[in-house]
Amino acid sequence: MDSIRLKARAKINLSLDVLGKREDGYHDVRMVMQTIGIYDRLIITKIPEDEIRIQSNLFYLPINENNLIYKAAKLLKDEFGFAGGVDVNLNKFIPVAAGMAGGSTDAASTLFGINKIYELGLSQNKLMELGVQIGADVPYCIMRGTALAEGIGEQLSRLKPVPHMWIVVAKPPINISTKLVYEQLDMNDILYHPNVDKMIQAINKESIEEIAANMGNVLERVTIPLYPIIDSIKNDMLSHGAINAMMSGSGPTVFGIFPNERTALNCQAYLKLKKEAKQVYITETFN
Ligand code: ATP
């Protein structure tokens, strides 16, 4: 096999709690992660030259060593020294700098794809171990599905898959740096922590109502005062049929859970008309 086509899927956080700041500057988190249908398309091809080449449909994305695809390819090349290189064609659909792990999932698919085309024989666990060197969300993006992430996000426990849900995703035209949000998070300022255990119970009960009722994200405390548009989109989703709506990760993307496709379509039409968010998609949970 000389080439592989992959779908690198985005995630949302159904619950995101921060437990404290660590000595090394990272934060200890407790998050319930969920893969959704939105994906980037990657075509990874072997090339004889000892190079890592990236092409992308978005002119503003780095295609050099700053792209997480490059970092993933370089890591495997350095560790396992296979002869030759890769050409990666990235068709990006996941909103960028949006709290949906877009870069991390591209890195995860790159690790997966190179392992296959170069027949490195690495297990999923080994790929996940390598992935954390690129980013805390990369191991989860390799695992996918419904999972509890602890530590800095790399300690993963598989959860029962959530029931199928219709999701509307809306990204306002602002880019947020995850690093900046965590830097500005004041632990003493977190008045409300989401109940992650209750979220897990709701998932075990397969109750969409209870999943929606237990959604919570402490990072909203930093991001919403900076960008009130996030709250506005949440309220619009709630007044247009969402069972609940919340910011994903460090934002600014907002997602809403909808009872059916029709209400999701209605809400999408409204949000597009209102033009608060440029990118508004309907998607589904993916397990
Ligand atoms: P997370 O949810 O993990 O915080 P995010 O969705 O907030 O991720 P990304 O879309 O991964 O953020 O992008 C963050 C930055 O990383 C972008 O500004 C971009 O320049 C850079 N980047 C590097 N590689 C990629 C990639 N393959 N796709 C998107 N962005 C990338």
Walk me through what this model shows.
33% of the residues lie in helices and 29% in strands. It is built from 10 helices and 11 strands. The protein has helices spanning 68-80, 102-117, 124-131, 138-143, 178-184, 196-204, 208-213, 220-226, 229-238, 261-274; strands spanning 3-21, 27-47, 52-56, 85-91, 146-150, 155-158, 166-171, 216-217, 244-247, 254-258, 279-284. The strands form 2 sheets. Strands 1, 2, 3, 4, 5, 6 and 8 form a 7-stranded mixed sheet that branches. A 4-stranded antiparallel sheet has the order 9-10-7-11, with helices on one face. α1 (68-80) packs parallel to α2 (102-117). The two termini are 27 Å apart. The mean pLDDT is 97. Adenosine-5'-triphosphate binds at residues 61-62, 66-69, 96-104, 106, 137, 178, 249-250.
